[in-house]
Predict the structure.
Amino acid sequence: MTNSEIFHNEIMSRGGRFQRQSAPENVKRVYKAVEERAQDLIRAARRVLPNLPEIHLDFILNGKINAVAFRSKERYFIGLHTGTLFMLRSVIGRTLSDSRLFQRVGDPKAERSDLGPLTDYVPNGEVMYKREALFTPNDRIRRAYAEFLQDQAILFLVGHELTHITHGHVDYLRAKRGQVATVELGWSEKRNPEERLERQCLEADADRRSIFSRIDSLRVTFDKPNPPAVPWRPTLEHPTEMILDWAVSVNILFRLFGDVRFSRTDLADSVYPPLPLRRMMCEAAAFWAVGRIWGPEFNRFAGQALQTARNEAELTFATMLGEDVKLDGLRAAFSDVGTEHARRLDDYWNTTLVEQLRPYSYELQAGR
């Protein structure tokens, strides 16, 4: 069987493989570009982990925002829901077409001033495709920025799923918990408290590794003798300019995953870290990565950039939906309750889970 056939058979219950050959040419180009960018990440992983088996990336015909990683026939697979790509394109295109938003990028006056609230919004590409036209920014620079945000959000998500494979999460959950795949959202099977804590740790690890890789990639770009300029920043004067733009993409992705509510029940009962807490941990991971990669003298600037990105994402969604900016959930994540739970996850990861994953982790077995 080919990789495509195996992939299709394994994810039939989720909608089956998206048959790109039947799509319009412009849609084919979009998916081809995403596939090529993702394959760049996979090839980079295989260069440093030569024992890593084949990994096939493909797309699942499903309007919900989600992604999955699994193993079948001694090969690994990463699947992105078509709804994820559509909703990123839809939301980012709309917000960059709104003259009220991202005033620092390009010429906002070239954009529309009549965009009212997006009514009946649901995070489902199939539903929103029928309700809302796609918007493309008029300004060339803002179009480029929209494409950048989409690209970086997808790379973060692919890097997250890739970590589920390279760090042994997929094989561990299959062997120890009977779980055939890691699903980014929506897995709600009842598990005992330790298993829920374990799964939250795995998600945090995948986020953390993907973030470190992206920050390191930004460093490689910035350290070139002549760093490539981007349309919205003709000259790169400081690394945190790049970090700000990257962090906006990640915050938008998480806002697509869900809202910013937060409760103590979520901490104990969910198999996923509550989204506000997850964003807080991602921000902390990015802050740590900047200090590790560029040096602690950059942390103050990085902190400001990460906070600005978080606020821009919240303003973007509030404006798009016609709501007030609500930061209660994010404040709760940064509270003593949130930070204590984050420490609990970190402690369980370091004292227990790392050793349990070692037999399944390609990176740990390689001494990385």
